[in-house]
Amino acid sequence: MTHLSPAADGGRTSRRGAAARHGRIRSLTGVLFVSPYVLFVLAVFAVPLVYTVWISVHRFYFTAPGTHADSPWVGLSNYRDVFTDPVVGRAFVNIVVFLVINVPLTVILSLVLASALNAKIRFRSFFRAAYYLPYITASVALVAVWQFLFGTDGFVNHALGPLAPDPSWLVNAHLAMPMIAFFVTWKQLGFFVMLYLAALQNVGKELYEAAAVDGAGRIRQFFSVTVPGVRPATTLVVIYAIITGANLFSEPYLLTGGGGPDHASVSPVLLMYQKGIEQGHPDFAAALGVVLVCFVLLISLAARKLTERGT
Amino acid sequence: MSVSTPAAPNGTPGHTVDEPRSARRRTPWATAVTYLLLALGAVVFLFPFLYMVVGSLRKTTTGDLSSAVPRGITGSNYTAVNGAISLGRSLLNSGVVTIGVLLCTLVFGLLAGYALAQLHFRGRGTVFATLLLVQMVPFQLLTLPLYVLVVRDYGLGDSYLGMILPFAVNSTAVFLFRQFFLQMPRSLFEAARLDGASELRILVQVALPMARPAVLTAMLLTFIGPWNEFLWPFLVTKDTAMQPLAVSLASFLSNLQGTVSNPTGALLAGACVLAAPAVALFLLFQRHFTSTDIDSGVKG
C-alpha cells in the first residue's frame, strides 16, 4: 500500500468530512462492483422473462437479424393451442411419472449410501469418488453409454436373455419415460449422497445414544433419528427433482430419440424446442414456457407444504 | 444445514467425526452389509464408465457379454470419431467457451460478492434478494426468449460470445463469494482502507489471496456447467466448426454414425474424450470438492 489516502495530507480536511467522503466513495464503489452482475441479470433473466410473456400473447415469427415482421396481438389463442394439444398433456404427465420414480428412489438410495459412507469404513474416498463420477460427467457422454447398454442388442438384454423386454427399454412406450427417470437418478445420485452425508453430520450423537438407551435397535434408530434429522436435505431433493423434471431435454432428445416412441417420453422443454424452433412456432413455445413456469411454481409450493408438514 | 458442516475427512485415523458411530457398537454383520452396499453402489456407478473405456478401445464393439472385456485393443475408434467430427476443433470450442465462462464468473462474481459482503450501498438488500430469486429460476425456461434475443435479434449465432453470454454471470458463485468474504475479519479491510488502498486493490491484494478455497470451489463447480452443457450451444451453433464437443458428439450420436465402420466404438471414444477433462479435474481436486462446498453452493 504505497499510495497515500486523500486524507493523509496533514488534517486539512476535518476527520468527519473525510469519513463521509470515504463512505460515499465506498458506496459508489459498491454500486460499481455489482453493476455488471445486475446488468447481466437484467439481460439474461428479467428481459427474457418479460419477453416470453409478450411473445406468448402475440403471433410471432422468426426473422433474420436486422429485418422486421409484424407481430399482431392474438390474446390467449396461443394458450388455447397449448391446452388443447394432446402431446402437451403427455409432456406434463411425463414430469409426474419422472417425479414419482425419481424422488423416492433418490431419497432412499442416497440416504442408505450416505449412512453407509458415514460409518467407520476404509476406502471412503474411493467410494465417494465413484458415486460422484456420473454427476460431473456430461449427459451426452453418459447417454451414449446407456443407449448402448440398454439397446435392443445391448449388454443388458444379453445379460437378461429371455427376460429382456420386447420392444427394448428405450423404444418401449411403457419403459422409455421410466428409463429417463432411472438415468437421471443414477447420474445425480452422487450429488445427493454428498448432500445427505453433510446433513448426517448435523444429527446429534446424543440423539442416537438416547434412542439406544430407550432400547431402539439400529433400524429403529435409522427411522426415528436419522430420517427426521435430515429432513431439510430431503426437501432439497424434492425441489431439485421438480426443477430437473421440468427441464429435461438432452435425455429425451438423445436417449429416447426425440421423446419417442410416439411421444411416450416427450418433455415440455423438448416440445418447446420442437414446436418453437424446429417447426417455427415460437409463440406456441413461449405460451408453453409460461404454463411450465406456473406448473413448476404450483408443484413446488405443494411439495414444500407436504415435506415440511409436522416439522 | 449450516454452511460450516465439516466434511467427513478422507479416512483420517482417529478423527472425532467418526465418534458417534463408534459409540454404537458395530457387529461384524453390520460391517459386512455396509461394505456390500457400498461395493454394489460402486459397481453400478463405475460399470458404465468401464464399459465406455473398453468399448472405445475395441476393434469391433458389440453388445454381448464379452464386450466388457478388453480384447483386440485399438486406437482406431478415436481416429474414426476424429475424422467424423474433428475432435480437436470441438475440444478447442469447448475450451474457449468454458474458459470464457470461468473468467466472467470469477471477475464479475468476485466483484459482486465482495460488494455484497463488505461495502454499503443503496439497493444492496434488493440485489441480494434478486440473487436468491434468480437461483430459483431454471435456465431452460428462458431458453426460447434468449434464443430469439441472442440469435435472431443480436445476430450472435455461431459465435463464442453467444454461447458464453447466458452463463457469464453465475449467481451461485456470487453467493459463494459473498459468504466467504462475509466470514473474513472486518478489521483487516479497515486497516487496508486506513492505508488508503482502493476497494479494488483491497479485493485483489487482501481478500482474494484469502479466498483461494472459495475460488477453487467456484471454478470446479463452474467448469462442469459449460463443459457439459448441451441445449444452449446446440441451439446457438449451426456451423459445425463452432460446435463444442458435447454438441458435435450429440450430432454424431443422432445422425452421423453411418459414416464410420465401428459406429458404437467411435461414439464411445468420443464420449471418453468428452468425459476425460471433467473427470481428471475432479480426481485432481477431489479433496477440495467436499460435501461442504456443494452444500453451501447449493444452499442458494
3D architecture notes:
Chain A: This is Sugar ABC transporter permease. Chain A: Belongs to the binding-protein-dependent transport system permease family. Chain A: Keywords: Cell membrane, Membrane, Transmembrane, Transmembrane helix, Transport. The complex is a heterodimer of chains A (311) and B (300). Helix content of chain A is 70%, strand content 0%. With 311 residues, chain A is mainly α. In chain A, α2 (77-84) crosses α13 (282-307), α7 (176-200) runs antiparallel to α10 and α8 (205-213) packs antiparallel against α9. Chain A is globular. Chain A starts with 14 loop residues before the first helix and ends with a helix. In chain B, α3 (76-85) packs across α4 and α4 (87-118) packs across α11 (212-228). Helices cover 68% and strands 0% of the residues of chain B. Chain B has 300 residues and is an all-alpha fold. Chain B has helices spanning 19-23, 28-57, 76-85, 87-118, 124-134, 143-153, 160-164, 171-183, 186-194, 199-210, 212-228, 231-236, 245-256, 263-284, 291-299. Chain B is built from 15 helices and no strands. Among the domains of chain B are: 27-74, no CATH class; 88-243, MetI-like (MetI-like fold). Residues 1-23 and 291-300 of chain B have low confidence and may be disordered. The chains are: A mainly alpha (311), B mainly alpha (300). The interface between A and B is large, with 118 and 121 residues.
Helix/strand layout:
The complex is a heterodimer of chains A (311) and B (300).
Chain A: H1 15-56, H2 77-84, H3 86-118, H4 124-136, H5 139-149, H6 155-160, H7 176-200, H8 205-213, H9 218-229, H10 231-247, H11 250-255, H12 268-278, H13 282-307
Helix pairs in contact in A: 1-13, 2-13, 3-7, 3-10, 4-7, 7-10, 8-9, 10-13, 12-13
Chain B: H1 19-23, H2 28-57, H3 76-85, H4 87-118, H5 124-134, H6 143-153, H7 160-164, H8 171-183, H9 186-194, H10 199-210, H11 212-228, H12 231-236, H13 245-256, H14 263-284, H15 291-299
